[in-house]
Amino acid sequence: MIMTNETLTILDPGFDALLADFDRTAMQRHKGTIYGLWPDLTLAYMNSAWTSFSKDNGGEPKIASAWNLGRHILAAMSGPLRPFYAENYRRCLAEDRPWEHVYECPSATLYRQLHMTVFPLGQGEGFLVINSLRQESAHPGIASSPLRELYENEHGHLVQCSHCRRVRRAGEDQHWDWVPDWVATQPGNTSHGLCEPCVGFYYSDQRMDGSGFAIPFQANV
What we know:
Elements: E1 10-11, H1 24-29, E2 34-37, E3 43-46, H2 48-56, H3 62-66, H4 82-95, E4 99-104, E5 110-121, E6 126-138, H5 148-151, E7 158-161, E8 167-169, E9 172-177, H6 180-184, E10 190-193, H7 196-202
Parallel strand pairs: 7-10
Antiparallel strand pairs: 1-3, 2-3, 2-6, 4-5, 5-6, 8-9
């Protein structure tokens, strides 16, 4: 692992040559998270924003200790999103062309929309993933109270959308509420799905089963 002092860089030495066509100084100064992946989707590089973003959003020191070189990026995603990302990473490398995706990354108080560009590197040797902030504002959702009796399903689970982080009302599959308390601190009995608006707008080619959950992606993560 290589680490620099001017700005925090975490880099697998073997990945360094794959970044020859990119401005490393600009990547380090970029305010969005940038990271590199090997073809098996394990982390090979992270820019300084990787740790600064997690610190600003209450993720440190856990993120720095748990998320380092060699971790599988799909392990950072809830199950419903894994098939979508796994397939598009595969296509990006197989077709040797960049892949772009717009997604949400809300906090309990902020609405954030980001743009991700994934570049295939070398001769199918890896990926460079660049995330840029497109929009940030106070979250427009009408806050609902964290009343478990309204949201726990028959299995005792709260179902949160993996993308917008709204929570599905028990027995009302089409009704998802903004519960900021459960965004700030996710309950231990939370499971994940994708709400219909997010599927339609962001994941229209996502394979879904009849219950509103993505078909699980099987990977050793």
